[in-house]
């Protein structure tokens, strides 16, 4: 059993992670830490033995937690202290635990354009920073000014946009940084106009994505010159059940780059389906699909 420091937040041992993810699958974390605030997080990391692995989990919208659980400590930034959103002139600052969609709505109220695309991303600001999240032709890099975080040693760090080295769904920032806050710059616009664009994005997402299913968002990144959903569709996997065990898993009939858990699928079922589709698409088209969904933990 790993030795864990004293905390002011919540610290749980052998905590099942399935309920914290959209797929509703996965084993337990050796330790799950929900820090009270940034100071609690920094103190914990300073005191935690350097050899203990640390994994960050947001709202679990774009992740597969494997059935064997996660070694070490899983850190989840949840609660009001992590979801603050404040505007100042043409900037908006949000905590890493704030939902992307809530930041989009706050930008509309403040009359700031440019962050509407966040209404179409089912995650948190921390995840958006990590992967340069984007959709509908816009990305985090287009509006980000700077971000603050804590590294594995418990030290505070600050990154400007240029420091991230963003490319498509990728950041060059050290993987051990846990982001705690980000500042964005929008363009002044009429609040009604910004909200109208947000409503259009929300409506489009509801009509084209299986948002009420147990899903994980976009499964694969778009290869250069291709759309992942088209490759999956043309390979014949739209709506096809991959029943390895239990309830199996399948790619959605509504959007063929979204996997869903239609019943009692395991993490192995879901990841196995993704790998089967990657292999099939490569064999049929010569195009390599890369995972956008993050997969963490141990196999059962």
Describe the fold and architecture.
The chain has 300 residues and is α+β, with helices and mostly antiparallel strands. Helices cover 25% and strands 26% of the residues. The chain is built from seven helices and 19 strands. The strands form six sheets. The chain has a five-stranded antiparallel sheet with strand order 6-7-13-11-12. It has a four-stranded mixed sheet with strand order 1-2-5-3, with no helix packed on it. Strand 6 and strand 7 form a beta hairpin. Helix 2 packs antiparallel against helix 5. The chain is globular, with a radius of gyration of 19 Å. The mean pLDDT is 95.
Radius of gyration: 19 Å
Structural class: alpha+beta
Give the ordered list of helices and strands: EEHEEEEEHEHEEEEHEEHEHEEEHE
Distance N terminus to C terminus? 19 Å
- As residue ranges, the low-confidence spans are none
Helix content: 25-40%
Q: Please outline the major beta sheet.
A: 5 strands, antiparallel
Number of helices: 7
- Read across the widest sheet, the strand sequence of neighbours is 6-7-13-11-12
Global morphology = globular
Mean pLDDT: 95
Q: What structural keywords apply?
A:
300 residues; alpha+beta; four-stranded mixed β-sheet; 7 helices; 19 strands; globular
Topology:
Blueprint: E1 10-16, E2 28-34, H1 38-47, E3 54-56, E4 63-65, E5 70-75, E6 85-88, E7 91-95, H2 100-109, E8 112-113, H3 125-131, E9 134-135, E10 138-139, E11 144-150, E12 156-160, H4 161-164, E13 178-185, E14 187-188, H5 191-208, E15 215-218, H6 228-234, E16 241-242, E17 249-251, E18 258-260, H7 267-285, E19 294-296
Helix pairs in contact: 2-5
């Amino acid at each position: 059993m790993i030795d864990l420091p004293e905390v002011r937040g919540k610290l749980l041992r052998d905590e099942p992670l399935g309920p914290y993810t959209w797929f509703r699958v996965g084993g337990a974390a050796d330790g799950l830490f929900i820090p009270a605030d940034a100071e609690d997080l920094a103190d914990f990391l300073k005191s935690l033995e350097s050899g203990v692995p640390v994994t960050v989990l947001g709202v679990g919208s774009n992740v597969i937690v494997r059935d064997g659980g996660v070694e070490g400590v899983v850190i989840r930034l949840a609660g009001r202290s992590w979801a603050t959103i404040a505007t100042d002139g043409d900037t908006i600052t949000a905590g890493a635990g704030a939902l992307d969609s809530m930041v989009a709505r706050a930008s509309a109220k403040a009359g700031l354009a440019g962050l509407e695309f966040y209404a179409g991303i089912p995650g948190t600001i921390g995840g958006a920073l990590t992967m340069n999240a984007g959709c509908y032709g816009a990305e985090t890099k287009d509006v980000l000014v700077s971000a603050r975080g804590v590294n594995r040693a418990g030290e505070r760090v600050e990154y400007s946009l240029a420091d991230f080295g963003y490319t498509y769904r990728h950041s060059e920032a050290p993987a051990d940084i846990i982001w705690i806050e980000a500042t964005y710059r929008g363009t002044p616009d009429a609040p009604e106009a910004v909200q109208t664009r947000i409503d259009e994005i929300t409506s489009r997402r509801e009509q084209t994505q299986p948002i009420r299913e147990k899903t994980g968002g976009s499964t694969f990144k778009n290869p250069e010159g291709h759309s992942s959903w088209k490759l999956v569709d043309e390979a014949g996997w739209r709506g096809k059940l991959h029943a390895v065990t239990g309830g199996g898993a399948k790619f959605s009939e509504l959007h063929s780059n979204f996997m869903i858990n239609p019943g009692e699928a395991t993490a192995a079922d879901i990841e196995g389906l993704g790998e089967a589709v990657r292999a099939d698409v490569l064999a049929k088209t010569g195009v390599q699909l890369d995972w956008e969904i993050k997969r963490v933990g141990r196999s059962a």
